[in-house]
Amino acid sequence: xxxxxxxxPTLSVQEGDNSIINCAYSNSASDxxxxxxxxxxxxxxxxxxxxxxxxxxxxxxxxxxxxxxxKHLSLQIAATQPGDSAVYFCAERRADSGGGADGxxxxxxxxxxxxx
Amino acid sequence: xxxxxxSPRHEVTEMGQEVTLRCKPISGHDYLFWYRQxxxxxxxxxxxxxxxxxxxxxxxxxxxxxxxxxxxxxxxxKIQPSEPRDSAVYFCASSFGYSxxxxxxxxxxxxxxx
Lengths: 116, 114
Hints:
The structure holds 2 protein chains of 2 kinds.
Chain A: E1 10-14, E2 19-24, E3 30-38, E4 45-51, E5 56-58, E6 62-67, E7 72-77, E8 86-94, E9 105-106, E10 110-115
Parallel strand pairs in A: 1-10
Antiparallel strand pairs in A: 2-7, 3-4, 3-8, 5-6, 6-7, 8-9, 8-10
Chain B: E1 5-7, E2 10-13, E3 19-24, E4 31-38, E5 42-50, E6 53-56, E7 65-71, E8 74-79, E9 88-95, E10 104-105, E11 109-113
Parallel strand pairs in B: 2-11
Antiparallel strand pairs in B: 1-3, 3-8, 4-5, 4-9, 5-6, 7-8, 9-10, 9-11
């Protein structure tokens, strides 16, 4: 989900469990989506991307699902590890930017905490 | 392989001073982006360049902000004069091509204006 101000949504999962992080994007014209992971004191790190002509894409331990009907994106992380603890951002890129809102539009982020 | 390199990592200065942030993109990347991250507003795009030419600076908050890219391996973001509300983490990112290519981020400059 989205957050306002200082409070990020937090997802706490047990080590070894699967986690699902959700993101509602805003623009039906967006054609490209990315998930980033950000650890404290570091920049966003690319995890996985998906184009709008796909509804699912898998990487190593991660899967991204795209539902264009409801403008929803999710990131599934299998068998979570302590190193997965971070803030996760979804980002979208508009297809019709045409000199307007170029670059990526980021969600507010979700804080994933892995419990030992 | 070297990623995006930003300097300084931290900057603390008094309001009214000029601040210059630096970025070296990944070699071969033709797009360079400057973002700002705050708790209240998250990650916001400020400006981006293609082949060293500024394409969209609509995210630059005020005339106090300016960015240059004199060559393919270097960009600066300057704030003059700086104000306390400019305090944030500033990120530089680069990508090869623009459409459907992920941007790769540096580790940012944490700027504090007193």
